[in-house]
Design a protein that fits this description.
By secondary structure, the protein is mainly α. Helices cover 78% and strands 0% of the residues. Helix 1 crosses helix 6 and helix 3 packs across helix 5. The mean pLDDT is 95.
């Protein structure tokens, strides 16, 4: 799964995609973060918070999208339709839009809620 197609299907803005690409999160970094999220979501989120809240929102958008891209194969392996995958992650675009409206920054704020689909819950 690539970012451009994913973004198109879930309605994620070009500005959000630019933020995601700026962080250039590796597959290894995303897989490690996913393991930590699965073990202790709240602890993981607290460990990533920085004094610069805008950078935190941006980084979490980039990280969650990277994990979602990696998770596509899990949806395929479970015989879940692509429509289910994309509909599940449309919340990322919705909450990014909310973050932009509230802060002027592309990012994600509802991180506990949005951790659910990346954990296949």
């Amino acid at each position: 799964m690539n970012l451009d197609y994913f973004a198109q299907r879930i309605g994620l803005s070009k500005d959000a995609c630019d933020v995601i690409q700026k962080y250039n999160i590796t597959d290894e970094e995303a897989r490690l973060a996913l393991k930590q999220i699965e073990l202790d979501t709240e602890g993981f989120l607290k460990s990533k918070q920085s004094s610069e809240i805008g950078a935190y929102y941006e980084y979490m958008l980039a990280l969650y999208v990277k994990i979602a891209l990696l998770r596509h194969q899990d949806y395929v392996d479970n015989n879940w339709a692509d429509d289910v995958y994309f509909d599940t992650f449309k919340d990322f675009a919705i909450w990014n839009d909310v973050c932009v409206k509230e802060t002027g920054i592309c990012g994600l704020k509802e991180l506990n809620w949005l951790a659910e689909p990346i954990q296949l819950k």
